[in-house]
Amino acid sequence: MLPKWCDKYSIHNDEIDKQHKKLFELAANVEMISDKPIHKGQIKFLLADFFNYMKEHFAEEEKYMAKIGYPELSNHQKIHKSIIQSMIDLIQNIKSTNDLKEKLNVIASKWLLEHILREDMKIEKWHQGQLGKTNTTNKDEKQKNYEYICSCPGKIHKVPYEIHQKISSSNASYKCKTCQEAIKQK
Question: Is this entry keyworded Cell cycle (predicted)?
Answer without folding.
Answer: no
